[in-house]
Amino acid sequence: MSGEPRTIVCKAAVVMAAGQPFEIMEVNVAPPKRGEVRIRILYACPCHTDEITQRGVDPTAVYPCILGHESCGQVESIGEGVTTCKPGQKVIPLWEGVMPLDNTSRFTTKDGQSIYHFMGTSRSDGFMSLFGLISWLSAASHNTPWCLRSALPLSRMIAPWTNLGCVGLACVEGAHLAGAKEIICVDINDIKLAMAKDFGGTKFINPKNYEKPIQDVIIEMTNGGVDFAFECTGNTTVMRNAVESTCKGWGLAVIVGIGEAGKEISTRPYHFIVGRQLKGSVFGGWRSRDDVPKLAEKVINGELKLGKYCTHRMKFSQINEAFDLLKRTECIRCVMDMQQ
Amino acid sequence: MSGEPRTIVCKAAVVMAAGQPFEIMEVNVAPPKRGEVRIRILYACPCHTDEITQRGVDPTAVYPCILGHESCGQVESIGEGVTTCKPGQKVIPLWEGVMPLDNTSRFTTKDGQSIYHFMGTSRSDGFMSLFGLISWLSAASHNTPWCLRSALPLSRMIAPWTNLGCVGLACVEGAHLAGAKEIICVDINDIKLAMAKDFGGTKFINPKNYEKPIQDVIIEMTNGGVDFAFECTGNTTVMRNAVESTCKGWGLAVIVGIGEAGKEISTRPYHFIVGRQLKGSVFGGWRSRDDVPKLAEKVINGELKLGKYCTHRMKFSQINEAFDLLKRTECIRCVMDMQQ
After folding, report:
1. Fewer CB within 10 Å, N side or C side of chain A?
2. Is A281's CB within 8 Å of B259's CB?
3. Is the confidence metric ipTM above 0.85 for this complex?
4. What family is it from (chains A, B) (predicted)?
5. Is A228 in the same domain as A318?
6. How confident is the model at residue B271 (pLDDT cuts 50, 70, 90)?
7. Could you tell me the pLDDT band of residue A121, with boundaries at 50, 70 and 90?
């Protein structure tokens, strides 16, 4: 042991207010308190969930904050009572239960202004204050097999309803691995539809090619609707489409995307009365300590092709460029090296 | 056998168009076709589901039609190939799978105009044409233990969110029998709230006594929300309240009421992302042939107090009065004798 952990100074990408670009600045990171762990972040990926908070359309957003929630790193120091990990261990911080236990922040600006955490997994240039060890893995991102758990058991078919970004494609892959017979991919971008084939998609629909509501197209195509529909856009109209594209009796629509502030999902209650269900999914329903090691094993064994999602690499100092890349069709995930 | 069944003439309460009162008239009832059963209805109860169709606010309604779906009777004759029942047997027609197999009607006016069935269980003065035997039972109504099936397993508490009519009270009783520890009853009518105590309710809330949204009251009262919320009104605002009164993580809201035409349920997608679910329930999810005999046994054994729901009795000729009674607080169910 090198003694008690102390406050350290790191570089972090801070969003000072809604709509502001990422500003790389030095921040103070307080030492981990009882039950908490401080992690040196090695790699991180920008995600649309960060981006909608940066833009200011996430209804739950608070500022200033350090965004980022897809990362991996190494335990730097541990607080009192932590027995689940040791300094030096490789870990993936996850969303579930990773905010400081006392609901305060461990981040401050050099001037002492408090900075909010984001999804409990805020990224700084090297260190984060978190409680609890999640799991270990040397790869870059954790959110690949989104939906594997929600999708079981798959009986007939599935429609990942999505702009086929990382989450949508992971949803396709998850459905494929779970044994879905038909995987209908929906996107208004033909390039993304073509990509989806690589991940296990079997049918491809571009709503722009149809004059009627896309749920009507799917109901006809499947002779009554799909068993599962995953919405991966955050668009409330698409959420409605997803509900209404599932079959009567047992159809399940799953909201995966984060809706914009003030937007609501609406539909006729009749759709539920006749047997449909609606639920949401965060991190695919995976439990961090129990499930992520199983996912890690699948990546190591080559069952999950994590590398397919990592289309670009950049330095942390290029963070604003990395977020611009997200808007471009050919980018699924850009891995940032936090040491550069 | 008394030979082939023939068309018979019966009295029926017909709604000729939306908003029209029930008109008792003679109708022709065609003989049962292959796989169908014709039933002499002995007793029937008016229900709000009939009433919203009579008023014209059910989006799926078609006219003219013979309403009614809560009844019991005796098999009058059977079509070719029917092996599950015999003439004379006591039966309860249920909604599930009881429309004529060929999607046509067995009812016509004396002038030959076709009359629609309603929920497959239309009531006439003595005879109905249905396919399939459901079950037998000499009592008057079948919809008591609504929700027993949907409610299991009950872990913490349940809020049957309801105007405590027959369905709402049955929901309370179902939750009680299923072992719910706390049963929160919500109604804007104090008399109904008092009734709910008899059926197993443990807490009673009248939204008129609060200035804030009732879901906020429930969230506070339960320290985070209920495990299950059953909406039994058909009011889309109450459906939203029900969703938003369930707890994060696993809260399940169940829509039981039939929404009015053109009305939609809306809520923030965030409520689902954090773990809530929404589904519907028809006939409590019971399967007719498999489950209703089990319910009948519970009534016969005294486990289900069906008699408590039958607050009034009338003659079939008083059908319009019976429907007026539905609007009065003290009436739960009015049993009509179809022979009078």
Report:
1. N
2. no
3. no
4. Belongs to the zinc-containing alcohol dehydrogenase family.
5. no
6. very high
7. low
Share the mean pLDDT of chain B.
78
pLDDT for A228: 87
Say yes or no: A271 and A303 in one domain: no
Cβ(B311)–Cβ(B192) below 8 Å? no
Give the tens place of pLDDT for each residue, B324-340.
998 888 888 888 888 88
Averaged pLDDT, B17-35: 86
Q: Which residues of A touch B263 (CB under 8 A)?
A: 268-269
Instruction: Give the residue from A250, A280, A310 where a domain finishes.
Output: A280
Instruction: Spell out which residues of chain B touch residue A281, defining contact as CB-CB under 8 Å.
Output: 273
How many structural domains compose chain B? 2
Interface check for B276 against chain A (CB to CB < 8 A): the answer is yes
Best to test chain A binding among B52, B53, B265 (most A CBs inside 10 Å): B265
> What residues are paired with A333 via a beta bridge?
A310
Is A13 contained in some domain?
A: yes
C-alpha closest to that of A123 among A29, A55, A21: A29
Instruction: State whether residue A149 sits within 8 Å of chain B by CB.
Output: no
Cβ distance of B280 and A282 shorter than 8 Å: no
Q: Where are the alpha helices (DSSP H) in chain A?
A: 48-55, 166-177, 190-198, 214-221, 236-244, 270-273, 288-300, 319-325
Give dist(CA A226, CA A240) in Å, integer. 14
Q: What domain range is B261 assigned to?
A: 156-280
Whether residue B269 is found in the same domain as residue B255: yes
